[in-house]
Amino acid sequence: MPTRRSTKRKSAGDGELHDDAPAPVAPRPEKRPRRASTKPGSGSAKAATKRKASRGSNGRAKTSGRGGRGGSGSGSGSGSNAAAPKTKARGSKKKAAPKTFKDQILAILADADAPIGLPSIKKELIARFGREDSSRFRKSVGTALKALEASNLPNFGKVGGSYHAGADSAVGRRIAEEAAEAKVKEERELAGHILCPWCQTWNDGLKSWDTEMPDARGSAYTCTAPVEEGAQGCTKKFYLSINDRDQIYGSKKYRRNPY
Fold first, then answer.
1. Which residues are CB-contacts of 113 (< 8 A; sequence separation ≥ 6)?
2. 82 near 67, Cβ under 8 Å?
3. Same domain as 204, residue 159
4. pLDDT tens-digit profile of 188-219?
5. CATH number, domain at 151?
6. What are 20-27's contacts with CB under 8 Å, separation 24+?
7. Domain ends where: 110, 137, 170?
8. Both 112 and 148 in a single domain?
9. pTM over 0.70
């Protein structure tokens, strides 16, 4: 520490000279660093604002990722809380309800488990699609059915006075099977064969005939003369009855009992 020169002075009491102690020199205060200016527009103010914004309310630095507390958020934690992008599922649209008479009739036939006639179709149109019964409604139904008959659509068919959902539908296949069976039955009966109702075996009518029924409306037979190769009769008695109505239409009833 620097000292001043020693000086002698007289004491006020005795007049003697005394050496004074060197007076200490006070240290200069250190310069403090200047504070960053907070005036708008200054570069230091902008830097301070960015540092303040980068910290949350608890003083921790904010992270760019959503999943974890630190890092960029690209790890496993970022996928757990991140919202998955919404994608439309394919085929989620509902099928539009049919609006025309033709489309509504086709929808009714597609759900039917048997051929249905015109009265049933009208009832379904009213109950299912809210149609109102009127002369115009009945005329429109008839027009739509005629148009469907002429269109040759694969999902529309007609048998007798009834309608179905086409030859490839369950109803259409069943109708085809019944038609094939009816054709075989007709050919067998024309050849003089009769069908045993017990074992479903065709017999020779003359060879298996047993006796005539008392009212002359049929005969009794015994299943002992199959006409198909390898078939064996069940030897049970059955009956073939023909009533007045059956004679008109040429059909026969094979029964297990007389009546």
1. 170, 171
2. yes
3. no
4. 989 989 899 999 999 998 898 888 776 666 78
5. 1.10.10
6. 25/1
7. 170
8. yes
9. no
